[in-house]
Amino acid sequence: MKWSVPQLLALKEKGLHIDESVNVNELKELDREIRDITPVRILGDAHITNRAATFELQLSGTMTLPCARTLNDVKYPFKIRATEIFQLDQWATFDEEDDVHEVEANTVDLLPYVKEQILLEKPLRVISDEEEGDAPASGKGWELQTKEEEQEKKIDPRLKELEKFFDNQK
Question: Region annotation Disordered: residue ranges (predicted)?
């Protein structure tokens, strides 16, 4: 996933098609919530001019994250569309809205930006379909309740007086 600027400029006429799988296991060390991640498939094309190389990418894979409620493993498939622009000409100017990356050591390395996109798209929390897990559903003086259970236990205060009526019947 690395190209030198002369390599990219040589591909200016015909463009560059990318179809690779890359191992991004380092993400498990960067974000402790990512328990596992499959190799990420990168599909896309690069459009190259004298000024810039624009990569239109689609990243896909599956990461394993902990359930927010039970701490069970949840497989989370992802499909990310990303556009990365690298400035090939140091004197070229771009709009301020464009997120343009400068080339370091005359080399375009796409992998750090792929990892960044995956981390940005990771959900804040996922919920497992399983009811039981490593995290307990109840403890001393507390238990996990759903909103439906909570609403069933509430008594309408306007009907509170009717309880006394049934007490008098006994």
Answer: 129-158
Burial of 131 (0-12, 13-18, 19+ CB in 10 A): exposed
Q: Between β-strands 52-66 and 36-37, what pairing exists: parallel, antiparallel or unpaired? A: antiparallel
Other C-beta atoms within 10 Å of 42: how many? 22
pLDDT in tens, 10-29: 888 888 899 999 999 999 99
Residue 96 has a pLDDT of 65
Q: Are strands 40-48 and 16-22 parallel, antiparallel or unpaired?
A: antiparallel
Mean pLDDT of the residues in the chain: 83
Query: Alpha-carbon distance 151 to 30, whole Å?
Result: 41
Q: How distant, in Å, are the alpha carbons of 108, 131, 144 from that of 136? A: 48, 10, 9
